[in-house]
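Input sequence (348 aa), recorded before submission:
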Amino acid sequence: MIQVYRVTRDVGSFKLDNISFDSPDGEYLVVLGPSGAGKTMLLESIAGLIPIDSGKIFINGKDVTRLPPEKRNVGFVYQDYMLFPNMTVEENIAFGLAMRDVPKSERDMRVQEMMEFLGIDYLKGRHPRTLSGGEKQRVALARALIINPEVLLLDEPLSSLDAQVRKKLREDLKKIHEKHPVNVIHVTHDQVEAFVLADRIGVLNQGKLLEIGLPEEIFKKPKTEFTTKFVGFDNIFKGHAKKENGITTVQVGDLMFQIVSEKEGTVTFAFRPEDVIVSKEKIKSSARNQFTGKITEIIDEGPLIRLKINVDDVTISSIITKKSFMDMNLRHGDTVTFIVKTTSIHVL
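Predicted structure, token format:
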């Protein structure tokens, strides 16, 4: 179990600000946030690589706040892996055991077992400069795991890999954690990575932990406006809500949206672009939020097309498949009808 209590680290130009969370035994916690959010600083604080100004850090009930890194039993994998270039793969993996004075015979046995487990035993005598990105990642992971850490810290471990290798290693990390259920804190800006791997997700921005919850909560019912934008709710509006006859409506410009909420007065609500259903014809639907507008922008995103639709000076973002786009033969300036189901609207 990891307990981080009111941890603050101020370096003048940036501040890790009063961070608190608990991570129970065996949890895979992903901290999601943009570049510059303080993700690496948080990991380095937990590892003891940088001192904190105030707060407490506990690992399995032990106060490690003032302990040096080597006394915390923490494994750390950096974004660039930081393998020792003058050592072979085998020597890199064995390094932590050697520093702990583990007898050579036991070191050799454990290194061989770990390499076989991660499928890298064929790399045994090679040096880091001869390895691919995926191979380096596995070696770095082996080096971190072999010391049987109480906590494994992963700093953007997949960010420098190509898409196919990244997908494979996401699957590998999930399987590895199932067999080695150590506490993991994995920081990333990649939302797919977070959703696939995390038991829970924390959202960090500008040194503040904004919220923490299950992946479904973070991606479907975020609590803050920053998280809402960051996880893909491109349509975010503020308006005046009024409830009459059991129905809540919100006025945004000249548009009236119906929402599921008991709130009245000024509210913020959002919906995802993929939840905006577009048609060139009027849509036969019981959905209450049906509008007509003009396409002002078409953005090709490979298999998907993003549309910007203007209606009464309000711009709506929609994502449709390329096939739907071609079937409807949509063009810039076309008039389209779109609907947003009330169940797709999230009220902050």
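Checked by second reader. The chain has a mean pLDDT of 92.
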